[in-house]
Amino acid sequence: MSMSSPSERLAQILREGRFVATRELGEECGAELHTHAKERYLALEATIPEFQSSMSRKLFELGPPVLAIYQALLHDLGVDRGPALRLAEDMLLAFYRKQLDRSPLLGAAMDIVFRLEPARRLIMKSTAPGSPGGSRFDKASDAGARLASGARECPLVAFARRHGAPEIVAMIGQLDDLRANAPRGIGLRRTGALDMGAARGGFRYVTVKK
Q1: Distance (Å, rounded) from C-alpha 109 to C-alpha 72?
Q2: pLDDT number for residue 108
């Protein structure tokens, strides 16, 4: 994904997810969602710099905009928790798939990282954790695994819990599955999820049969 601020990401998710929101909520409520999500984001804005300073992965920048949309659905539009979570997720996926479509070089770059040992070493060296328990990439010891990531703490999980919405973490985390690009022979295997109570979160990029 290109460099953008969380507020720009909110605008992009709302734009790319407009069709989904209108389909599920209707035209009027879909428009209200845009207004309320922006209001919810403004209410979160004071907490975002601290969150950004602790971010260990660029993917985590989606936390504040997703939370704002989810809160707007729950508290302003009165959508039940389950449907609100699914709608926020569908809007996020609509945005992210469009981002992948607009980044044709991403797949090629991922291929290089996964298939070439020097590229994997560079990734491991450049992703030192921001704290002793933070996220980091390591050489994978599993048979068939190309790259491993693990953490005992996660700023996204902490941010979501602080705002009473740990359930948004899973929908953001699943974007890694889209990036894994299984058609090229690489898949993602999760080994633990901090938001689900695991002592250590992690995943492995593994070779899969086509």
Answers
A1: 36
A2: 57
pTM: 0.71
Residue 60 pLDDT exceeds 80: yes
**DSSP labels, the chain:** -----HHHHHHHHHHHTHHHHHHHH-HHHHHHHHHHHHHHHHHHGGGHHHHHHH-SSGGGGGHHHHHHHHHIIIIIS---HHHHHHHHHHHHHHHHHHHHHT-HHHHHHHHHHHH-HHHHHHHHHH---SSTTS-EEE---STTEEEEEEES--HHHHHHHHTT-TTHHHHHHTHHHHHH-GGGTEEEEEEE-GGGT-SSEEEEEEE---
Domain ranges of the chain: 6-101, 105-207
pLDDT per residue as tens digits for the range 77-86: 999 999 999 9
pLDDT (tens digit per residue) in 5-24? 889 999 999 999 999 999 99
Number of CB atoms found within 10 A of residue 49's CB: 9
Q: How many CA atoms lie within 13 A of 109 on its CB side?
A: 9
